[in-house]
Amino acid sequence: MNDVVRATRTNLLGLEKAELEAFVVALGNKPFRARQLMSWLYKRGEGDFAAMTDLAREFRAQLSEHAIVATPEVVSRHDSADGTRKWLLKAEAGQAFEMVFIPETDRGTLCISSQVGCALDCAFCSTAQQGFNRNLDTAEIVGQLWLANRELGFEPGGQRRITNVVLMGMGEPLANFRAVVPAIRIMLDDLGFDISRRRVTLSTSGLVPQMYKLAEETNCALAVSLHAPNDALRNELVPINRKHPIAELLDACWHYIDEQNGRSVTFEYVMLDGVNDQPEHARELARLLKGRPAKLNLIPFNPFPGTSFRRSPAHVIAAFRDALIQRGVLATIRRTRGDDIDAACGQLAGRVNDRLRVRLGDKLIGVTVQ
Ligand code: SAH
Predict the structure, then answer these.
(1) Whether residue 180 sits in one domain with residue 166
(2) What is the whole-number distance in angstroms between the Cα of residue 192 and the centre of ligand 1?
(3) Residues 27, 167: one domain?
(4) N or C: lower Cβ tally within 10 Å for the chain?
(5) Which helix (H) or strand (E) holds 79?
(6) What is the mean pLDDT of residues 2-29?
(7) Which of 296, 299, 310 best tests ligand 1's pocket when mutated (most atoms within 8 Å of CB)?
(8) Is 345 considered catalytic here?
(9) Quick one: 99 and 59 in the same domain?
(10) pLDDT digits over 103-130, tens only?
């Protein structure tokens, strides 16, 4: 189907339940038709209106005329020796973003992107090097999960291969708030993908005002890219910290947990050799997080071309974890997956034509990140 035809039809994967109801009502149908449609779309993974046999013929004809079920197109697929799969997905004009499936014995996690590139300029992240092109829309975010289910051989009523979704691919999800929140709602909706709220995780580098808004609008699990225990170091590694320092960030985290009656925030902490992995860093971290609803996830740094950071040695990472646990802070080490196909954390580069050219690290003021 060509782009012009697409543009004149509504992509149903971008509509939350209430919006889908409004859409079917606008076509002159009863609102409950939206439920039937959602059941076809999300319970059976069906995208062909002609196959939706319990819908009236006339309604199906209307849908073919005015609606479409379209996912991002696959540019290429890559399989890791450890079972991790990565897809390069088409944006436009030769640009692409990435999605990763990580199978484990007791679950399967899909890591999806929210933007083509990223503007946040974290020093140790490969996506940052690519710059920023644009936000993905809701249908492109939901479409990743829909597509992955198909790619992985989804069968209606069968066992789910994707049990968890993490917004940890390319982009800063809270900088694309208006598209990301509806996408999360569709994932959680029992008429949608019906994933438990503890199994959909949004990870942010710390856009504090949007974290407060998130607490009002949805209740998925929250992960925060902390990476440093003090402002001096975090200012260098995660430049958004210059705008929203650690104390402010942590307040927003505890507020989210209170509002959502959540269990804990997962703090991501990339282990950079000689930079943030010393015993005093563990002590500082413990002081910040002890007694709080917090879990620390230590991520061994994944290298990419052009970086001068190095991964902390395994024994340093283990000692760091133990120092935290001794001080009463829950800490685990994230197992590296998919690094042989550049699918590990921070290695997603896609193909991005940088439209912003000004990174947050250079100029904090004047860059809109919403
Ligand atoms: N922009 C959001 C979502 C990305 S999540 C965020 O920053 O939270 C991806 C996680 O991998 C983040 O915690 C990110 O900081 C981390 N990461 C980035 N580059 C990395 C690298 N080279 N090695 C390991 N982890 C990295």
Answers:
(1) yes
(2) 28
(3) no
(4) N
(5) strand 74-79
(6) 87
(7) 299
(8) yes
(9) no
(10) 999 999 999 999 999 999 999 999 998 8
